Amino acid sequence: MLFAGMLVCAIATRADKIVLKNGRQIVAYNVSEDGDKIRYETAAGELSIPKSIVDHIEKGGLMPVTESPASAAANLNINPPPMEATANAAEIDQAAVHDGAIDREYIARLEGEAHGGNAKANEKAALAHHAAAQFELARGDMEHALSDERTAITYLPEQPVLLMNVAYLYLKKSEFKQSIEYLERAKRVSSDNADTYKLEGWAYYGMNRPDQAVQEWKKSLALKPDVETQAALDKALRDKQEEENYKENESAHFQLKYNGAAQPALAREVLHTLETHYATIESELNYTPPEQIGVVLYTQQAFSDITRAPGWVGALNDGRIRVPVQGLTGVDSELSRVLKHELTHSFIQQKTRGRAPTWIQEGVAQWMEGKKSDENAAVLLQIYDGGQAAPLGRLEGSWMGLPGDVAQYAYAWALANVEYIVETQGMGDVERILDRIAAGGTTEDALKEVLRDDYGDLMRSTAEYLKKNYGR
Ligand SMILES: [Zn+2]
Fold it and tell me: CA 66, CA 49: separation in Å to the nearest integer?
């Protein structure tokens, strides 16, 4: 975080707007609350005004991508219950996976024995495939884990733990319909397992069906208290309550909800703008998202109540595009830019099944909305040459906890790296990098395969690009 201090004046080029109750507006940097005062910086230095005269503050368009249902599901803290112990389960475990590898010969032998139709033999074959699946899951190999777990089910089609494991793997892959299919099968066999309802809640949430998610989570909590399920339920209920009075509209690729205070004409214009951007991004990234994209337009107050996002967040994308549109009657260039940025997140999220690191998400989203490094180049170079640039590996996770000034640096650096890739190699390389990330590889491996660069090489090339194109 060494770079934070020196960035404040240099990169804070995107100003916030303080709107007073009397209608006057103050354009300022680094607006913060301090007790009953609002502090801010202008060219004249640091100033403060009483909070009581401020109506609201419009933040300057920093837009993080937050956890989507897909990535929330991927990080679920859930352990499907262990399978009922049979006499030789531990023995089969050890025989199926040993010395850091799966013993396929052993598993094939058990399968051969199972083909006689003997119940005990079937169970042994299922347990062996289940052990293999657990081993593959632990190594992050979802495809093979799923394949082994599904094979296990062919030997024990009514074993709820196996059904839940398959459902869990589909959920992790954001394949929600398949997940629900297996959860329903698990329920038919055993209807009182809280985790089945918990997983199904997430699957419906991922499909943008919060009402059904709420039902499932309530059933889960009635069977067993669970902090994570309670938090998910609370968030969904906040959403539902807010949206109950919302109107709806839709277009070919979007489902839009908006507060009654907004004009239907604005909603139509937003949909039209989104469809235009959709066509552009679709051809740039050579990808069509399979699912309709949810969009919610809020008043400013509702936005912060519902999203609980840090104060510097302008709009966000947590699986649905959420945009505050307070006081707008039409789509201006700023709102159009925000919509394109957030829509890019939806494309990347679906293209990579929620696996894209934050720096690529934000870099590409800013590029798509039309940003260039411009005035940020000089300070980025200063930081890079001073050996203080954050390694891109550290910008892979969530940025929601970053202080505003550090986040500004992260955005600028993410854009610079993506700008370098697009300007020198073309958008095709970004597309190929995203495809490799989608396939399950690490981001750095994807860079090595497509650009023949590791993170260090990419940062060096980006610094050279900035020097050449923006001078010093
Ligand atoms: Zn963003």
Answer: 32
**Cα 75 to middle of ligand 1, angstroms:** 21
Taking the centre of ligand 1 as the mean of its atom positions, its distance from the CA of residue 364, in whole angstroms, is: 9
Three-class HEC string of the chain: CCCHHHHHHHHCCCCEEEEECCCCEEEEEEEEEECCEEEEEECCEEEEEEHHHEEEEECCCECCECCCHHHHHHCCCCCCCCCCCCCCHHHHHHHHEECCEECHHHHHHHHHHHCCCCHHHHHHHHHHHHHHHHHHHHCCCHHHHHHHHHHHHHHCCCCHHHHHHHHHHHHHCCCHHHHHHHHHHHHHHCCCCHHHHHHHHHHHHHCCCHHHHHHHHHHHHHHCCCHHHHHHHHHHHHHHHHHCCCEEEECCCEEEEECCCCCHHHHHHHHHHHHHHHHHHHHHHCCCCCCCEEEEEECHHHHHHHHCCCCCECCEECCEEEEECCCCCCCCHHHHHHHHHHHHHHHHHHHCCCCCCHHHHHHHHHHHHCCCCHHHHHHHHHHHHCCCCCCHHHHCCCCCCCCHHHHHHHHHHHHHHHHHHHHHHCHHHHHHHHHHHHCCCCHHHHHHHHHCCCHHHHHHHHHHHHHHHHCC
Q: Which of 169, 125, 165, 121 is nearest to 143 (CA)?
A: 169
Ligand 1 centroid – CA 10 distance (Å): 21
Q: How far is the CA of 100 from the centre of ligand 1 (A)?
A: 40
Dist. CA 236 → ligand 1 center (Å) = 22
Question: Cα(374) to centroid of ligand 1, in Å?
Answer: 18
With 0.70 as the threshold, say if the pTM is over it.
no
How many whole angstroms from 62 Cα to the centroid of ligand 1? 7
* pLDDT digit string (tens) for the chain, length 472 residues: 223 222 222 222 345 677 766 556 566 666 778 777 777 664 434 566 777 777 777 765 433 344 555 556 555 655 555 666 565 788 888 899 999 899 999 999 999 998 877 888 898 999 999 999 988 887 777 888 999 999 999 999 988 889 999 998 888 777 788 999 999 999 999 889 898 999 999 888 877 788 899 999 999 999 999 888 888 898 888 877 777 777 888 899 999 988 766 678 888 999 999 999 999 999 999 999 888 899 988 876 667 666 666 655 677 888 888 888 877 788 888 889 989 999 999 999 989 988 899 999 999 999 999 999 998 999 999 999 999 888 899 899 888 777 777 888 899 999 999 999 999 999 999 999 999 999 888 999 999 999 999 999 999 999 999 999 998 5
